[in-house]
Request: fold
Amino acid sequence: MSAPISRLGFHYFPDDSHYTEKDLEEWLPTLLRLSANWLVLHATPNRLIPQPFLRGLIEAGIRPVVWIKGRVDEVASDQISPALANYGEWGVREVVVFDRPNLRSMWPSDEWARPGLVERFVDRMLPILQLQRATGMHPVFPPLEPGGDYWDTAFLETALKSMLRRGHRSLLDDLHLAIFARTFGKPLEWGYGGPEEWASSRPYNTPDGSQDQIGFRTFDWYAATTEAVMGKTLPMIVVAGGPPSTVEDGNGEIASILRAVQSGQLPQSVLGFNFYLLSASPGSPDFESAWFASPSEPRPIVGSAKRLLDAGGLSGSRSTGKALDHFVLLPDGPVSEDTWATVKTLIKDGVIGFSTKEALQADRVTILGDEAAIPPSVERRLLEAGCDVTRVKGPGQIIAAAWKATYRDGK
Reply:
C-alpha cells in the first residue's frame, strides 16, 4: 500500500488569480505544515500558470494538478496544445481539461439536445488525451457531477466503451480519472461498496433503503464501472472532496476523512485526495468551504487538523494501531452447536464474532464462509482498513480440513 501521506492535498483557490511570487511565499509554508503533497490549480486555455509558481511547488514535493475548466464547446485540442507542451516541459504530470461534461450547463443548448452526447464528447476529448500522453503526462478524464443531468456512471461507462470500440485500449490503460468525493450532507459511509453492495440502485432511481454514488464514496462506484468495462480499476484523483462547509458542522467530517487518509482506508486506486478548499476571496460563494480566510486567518479546522496530522505521524512507514491481533468473522444467522464447537476447537488465538465493525479493529481477519454467506464487499472493506484477510470456505459454516489447510500450524 502506498504511504498515506502521498494522498493528501488541497484545492487551491476557485479562480486563477493567485499565482504571484508573493502568493507562493505566503501559501507554500502553510501547505508544507499541513503535509500537502497535491495541489489543484485553476487555469484557462490561454493563460498559463507561471512557471516559477509551479517550480516552487514541485521543488517542495507538492504535485500540481492543473485544471483547465470550460464548457465543452470552449476548449479544443489545437487551442490548448501549446499550454500542454509547456506544462509537460515544466514537470506537470496531470492536467484536467473540461468541467462536468454530464451537466446540461456545460453544453450549448442545441448540442445537449442532439443524440449521441457521450460519443460527441469523446470526439472532443480523445485528441486532448492523446496530446497529454504525448507530452509525458497521464491522460486524465475530467470529473463528472455525481448524479448529474446525464447520470455520471452511465456517462463514464459509455465513454470508456466508446474509446475501447475505437481502438484506444493502450490510451485507456494509462488513463486517470479526476473525480469528486463530496459528502452532499450524507454520512461518509454512504454508498460504500458500490453497485455490488447496492444492486437495486439504477441510474436516476435509488430505491428507498438503497444508496448510490452521490456521496463521499463516489470512487467505489467508478472503480466498479471501470472494472466492468476494462477489467481493471483506473487510478483516481479527487480534485474536490469533503463537506460543503468548514464554518459550521464540517470539522467532524473533515477529521474523519483525514483519519481515513492517514490510516490507508481509502482504496489504493485513489492516488490523491484534495480537500475543497484551501482559500477563497471574501464574497466568493466558496468562502465558507475555505480552510483559510487568508494566509494569516485559519479557520478552526486547521488547528484540529494539524494536531491530528502531527499525532498520526503521516510517514512512509505504516503502523496499523489495531486493537486486536486476530478476529474470526462468522456469517450472520444461527450457528449450530456442532459448528460452534468446531470453531472454538480450531481457533486458538482469535476473537470470534459476527461484527464487521469489530473485525475492522484486527490486524488479521479470517472470514469463515463463502461469498454468499459473507459478501466480497465485506472482504474489500477489511482490506481497505489495512487488515490481513484470509477466507476459509466450504460446505456449511466451516470445515476443519479447510481451516487446517489454510493455517498449517492449526492457528
The chain has 15 helices and 14 strands. The radius of gyration is 23 Å. The longest strand covers residues 176-182.
